[in-house]
């Protein structure tokens, strides 16, 4: 559908939900007087072409639980009247042209029931506010301030978000270390701070995040679904993987040996940093690990052989390091390809075509029928697990649309 919204929509006073997502509507939302829609609980205008500002009349919809305006051409600053939406639990303003993120956060902190907040792809080039008077958001479970090119540091006011389970700060220009208070986020199980300018050693505080050693997650239903793609909806927190993504930063030093404490971790991505030293054998304690990416670092030593015991491991990338010795064999390792290990001239094994103990002798890999069948089965399973709506970011780091 296309065109502008009909002003007569204001006459539908019994409406509880308006769902017009993924259409080609345009024009300004101010053409509709939302003041009359006193029963409205859900307004979903995701992925249209609406322009202008958020109409003030929307703030009269006191029963509104979920508001999704992402993927439009809206602009301006958030009105203080947003705080009239006392019942709001789901808000997505992503991919618009809003300005003044400091003002936005000060306004939104007064929406005491907010559970999910998405501010992706807006406020471009501003500074991440560090103002400790941003002290609300006590019920927030998911926060995304990503793809904004924000400068600054990881702000201290985040340390107050005790119910936060998922934090997305990727694709900004944040610098400095990961703060030690990160371990105080008692519910955090998904952290994506990739594609920034963060530096220093990976702190042991990350390894001590209380939520990562457990598999108990919040089962409350969201106000609106999140999408991997139009056909794949997610309604509850427990449907998400447990993720630690530090890729594309400037981290140095060794991978902490305490990493083995993160028992329920599903996806681990430390790629494209300057990490050095051995891959700690404790990483083999991550028995739920499905994706491991340590590529493009300065790692040395052997690949721990016990990685072959991680039966859920479906993707690995340790390419472009300085690793040496035999590549583990058996289990899932028979399904991995040369690209997972390339750029490590001291590695040997059938996968890289280099016989162990004979560094000059090339070994041309030949696969048995059983191995071929396993690779085909793996490809099908891998595609089913990751291919449906996942934005494959180096090693299948899922990014979910609010």
Automatic annotation (TrEMBL):
Record membrane topology: Single-pass type I membrane protein
Protein family: Belongs to the RLP family.
Protein name (database record): Disease resistance R13L4/SHOC-2-like LRR domain-containing protein
Domain Disease resistance R13L4/SHOC-2-like LRR: from-to ranges: 36-218
Major location category of this protein: membrane
Subcellular locations according to the entry: Cell membrane
Pfam families: LRR_1, LRR_14
Organism: Urochloa decumbens
Presence of the UniProt keyword Transferase in the record: no
Superkingdom in the source lineage: Eukaryota
Keywords linked to the UniProt accession: Cell membrane, Glycoprotein, Leucine-rich repeat, Membrane, Receptor, Repeat, Signal, Transmembrane, Transmembrane helix
Transmembrane feature ranges: 376-392
């Amino acid at each position: 559908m296309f065109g502008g919204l009909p002003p007569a929509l204001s006459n539908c006073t019994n409406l509880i939900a308006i769902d017009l997502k993924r259409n080609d509507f345009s024009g300004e939302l101010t053409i509709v007087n939302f003041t009359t829609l006193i029963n409205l609980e859900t307004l979903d205008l995701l992925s249209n072409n609406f322009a202008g500002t958020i109409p003030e009349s929307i703030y009269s919809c006191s029963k509104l639980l979920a508001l999704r305006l992402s993927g439009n051409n809206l602009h301006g600053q958030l009105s203080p009247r947003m705080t009239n939406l006392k019942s709001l639990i789901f808000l997505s303003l992503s991919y618009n042209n809003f300005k003044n993120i400091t003002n936005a956060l000060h306004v939104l902190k007064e929406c005491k029931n907010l559970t999910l907040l998405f501010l992706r792809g807006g406020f471009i080039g501003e500074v991440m506010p560090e103002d400790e008077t941003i002290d609300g958001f006590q019920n927030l479970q998911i926060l995304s301030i990503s793809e904004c090119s924000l400068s600054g540091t990881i702000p201290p006011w985040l340390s107050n978000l005790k119910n936060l389970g998922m934090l997305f700060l990727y694709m900004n220009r944040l610098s400095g270390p990961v703060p030690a208070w990160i371990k105080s986020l008692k519910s955090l199980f998904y952290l994506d701070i990739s594609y920034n300018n963060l530096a220093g050693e990976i702190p042991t505080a990350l390894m001590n995040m209380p939520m990562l050693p457990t598999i108990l997650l919040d089962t409350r239903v969201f106000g609106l679904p999140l999408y991997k793609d139009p056909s794949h909806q997610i309604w509850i927190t427990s449907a998400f993987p447990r993720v630690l993504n530090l890729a594309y930063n400037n981290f140095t030093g060794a991978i902490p040996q305490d990493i083995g404490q993160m028992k329920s971790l599903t996806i681990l991505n430390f790629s494209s940093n300057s990490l050095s030293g051995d891959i700690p054998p404790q990483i083999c304690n991550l028995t739920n690990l499905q994706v491991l990416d340590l590529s493009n670092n300065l790692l040395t030593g052997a690949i721990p052989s016990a990685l072959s015991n991680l039966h859920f491991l479906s993707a690995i990338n340790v390419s472009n390091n300085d690793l040496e010795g035999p590549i583990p064999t058996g289990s899932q390792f028979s399904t991995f390809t040369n690209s997972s290990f390339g750029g490590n001239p001291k590695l040997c094994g059938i996968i890289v075509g280099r016989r162990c103990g004979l560094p000059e002798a090339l070994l041309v890999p030949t696969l048995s029928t059983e191995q071929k069948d396993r690779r085909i089965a793996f490809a099908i399973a891998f595609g089913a697990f990751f291919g449906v709506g996942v934005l494959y970011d180096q090693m299948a780091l899922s990014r979910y649309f609010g």
